[in-house]
Task: inverse folding
């Protein structure tokens, strides 16, 4: 009888150890499988160091359609491009005010973009770095116009060149 109790105790202890080990291994595996998905921190913008959650896009109400500067071939070209201005929202005091200003004074942003596009050729925009160059020009000029370094990026939502 004493031997049966000892044997039952050993079996119970072994089962508990087996369950604990299985649970720990399962948690470890699940944690590492998810590390490439939701468990991973949001990607950061290499230029600003901000995550996508730190940037509020302020979209222009409609796409901008305008003529481009004639290129070396002399042909007329048109661009239809949608833009959003990315604002750093980590400054809880100033970013809401800037977002409101950008929305209320959208005509200033649109004027800046049209001016840039009127001085850009179709050939410049078609280059592999064309969108990045346009983004950078818009970013610099909009940032200067509104006097704010909280403007951190420019998003392009539509891109049609003819």
Result:
């Amino acid at each position: 009888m004493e031997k049966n109790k000892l044997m039952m105790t050993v079996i119970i202890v072994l089962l508990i150890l087996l369950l604990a080990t299985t649970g720990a291994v399962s948690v470890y595996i699940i944690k590492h499988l998810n590390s490439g998905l939701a468990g991973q921190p949001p990607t950061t913008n290499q230029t600003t160091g901000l995550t996508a959650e730190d940037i509020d896009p302020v979209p222009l109400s409609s796409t901008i359609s305008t003529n481009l500067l004639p290129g070396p071939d002399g042909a007329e070209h048109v661009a239809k491009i949608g833009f959003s201005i990315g604002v750093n929202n980590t400054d809880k005091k100033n970013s809401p005010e800037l977002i409101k200003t950008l929305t209320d004074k959208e005509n200033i942003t649109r004027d800046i973009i049209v001016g840039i596009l009127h001085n850009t050729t179709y050939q410049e925009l078609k280059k592999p770095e064309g969108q990045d160059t346009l983004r950078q020009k818009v970013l610099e000029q909009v940032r200067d116009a509104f006097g704010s370094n909280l403007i951190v990026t420019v998003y392009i939502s539509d891109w049609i060149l003819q």
Summary: Helices lie at 2-34, 95-104, 106-118, 122-126, 130-146. The longest strand covers residues 78-88.
